[in-house]
Amino acid sequence: MTAAALRVLHVPGKPVLLPNVWDADSARLVEEAGFPVVATSSGAVAASLGYPDGERAPADEMFAAAARIARAVSVPVTVDAESGYGFPPRDFADRLLATGAVGCNLEDTDHARGGIRPVAEQAERLAAIREAAGDALVINARVDVFLRGDQREALPEGIERAKAYLAAGADCVYPILIRSPDVLGEFVKAVHPAAVNGNRIPGTDLASLGVARVSMGARLWRDTRTWLAGHLKTL
Predict the structure, then answer these.
(1) CA-CA distance, 174 to 46, in Å (whole number)?
(2) Which controlled-vocabulary keywords does the entry list (predicted)?
(3) Could you list the residue range(s) of the whole structural domain that residue 35 is in?
């Protein structure tokens, strides 16, 4: 499947739901359930390979897992590629596209330095990846300023970052784990008509906020692991 097939699924107000997977078999289950796209969770994939999240799994193993997932399904695959594993933009784009994936999440956290990259630096990196990949890759640019501290106080910087990333060529922006419908709604309005990826907020209809994409992150993997742990105790 092509990036164009994934890109057209990003419709503000009619979000595509992404039940994130961790291996080829879970990817097949998502496709068989009728979902039009398969997305990975870096945390779940890393755990399935025996490593913690946060770019602590070897990049070769993460790309190999992505390739197995892409081979297993006929729908578009988008990969949670963390911060790009330290690869130069062209090398990153080449390696990701070689897996068969047509989309990726890219976060602005720099795991090597232990903080969030300056906005201009991250925008430059996104622009270089866009140039290297052309239209063959749907880029979902993650905005990590909402992961710590007061989310309303982080909103102006989050909006600034989102606009810079969109100007650099991102197809979608992802203000990860915003917990307040009001904050998420203001973010969506500020970057309209761009596509926004949200996470589920209990009791909130994200479509009414205008999001274009909803990620479940590692939730399915955690639920599966919890069920298995409980079932093992009954054996």
Answers:
(1) 21
(2) Lyase, Pyruvate
(3) 3-232
